[in-house]
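Forgive a beginner's question, but would it be possible to get a protein, spelled out as residues, together with the matching C-alpha cells, please?
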Amino acid sequence: MNPTLPAPLDVKLMNLTATVLFVGCVALVLAAGAWWVLRHPAFAIARIVVQGDLVHNNAVTLRANVAPHLGGNFFTLNLHTARAAFEQVPWVRSAQVRREYPGTLQVVLQEHRAVANWGDEAGTAMVNRQGEVFDANADDAEYEGLPRLKGPQGQSAVVLQMHGRLQALVEPLGMVVQELELTGRGGWRLVMDSGAEVELGGGSTEEVLQRTERFVRTLTQVAAQYGRRADALESADLRHGAGYALRLRGVTTVTAGQGAPARR
C-alpha cells in the first residue's frame, strides 16, 4: 500500500486562497444584509410613548423636542443617550427608556416637584422634594409663595431639612420661615414672612434648634412686657450664649442718645 503523498505547496496555497475568498464573500454578504436590515424603514422608531405624572411637559412637545436628538433605529438606538436627551428637558428629573417591538420607544418620566427657590432672587434655580437643585426658569404664579433657601453648593438637602424643622418650631407663633440661609461659615439666618430677620448662629443642628425653641417659647412673654405681641418682631439675635437680643416694632430703649434692642 502506497503512502499518501503530501499535496504540493501550490495546491495548498490555492486551497487556502479559495477558503479565504469564500469566507470573505460570506462576511460581505452578511454585512450587506445586516446593513440593509438595520436601515430598512420597517425598523425605524415609529412611535415614542411618553408616560408619567407630567405637569410642566406633555407628550406631544416632548416627542417633538427630543426626537431629533435620537440617532439610529429601533436596534441601533443607544438607550443611555436617549435617556440623557429626555433628562435634559426642563423639569424632567429622571427618565426610563426601553424598546418595545415593533418600532416603539417607551419612556417613563418623573418631573421635579418644586418646594422652594434656591439662591439669589435673580436666579432660576429651585429645590425639589428630594433636596436636589434644578434649573426651572419658572414664571408661574403658583411658585411665588415658595420659601427661598440659600447655602453652599451641595448643601441644598441639609438646608431643606432644616427649613422643615424650623418651620415646625415657629408655627405656634403664626409665623412662616420665608427665607433660610446657611452661610459659608456654618451659621444660620432666617427671615419670616413678616420681614423679621433672625440670626440663629452656628453649631450642631440640635444646638441651633434648641436656641430657636427657647426663643419661640419665650418671645410672646417678652413682647408682652413691652405691650407688644410676637408679630411685632423686627429682628432677633440668638447667637448669645445666655439669651438673645431682639428688636420689636414701636419699642425702643434709648440711653445717652444710643438706641439699643430689648434683651432676654
Summary: The chain has two domains: 41-111, 145-263. The first strand starts at residue 47 and ends at 51. The chain is about 30% helix and 25% strand. The chain has a mean pLDDT of 85.
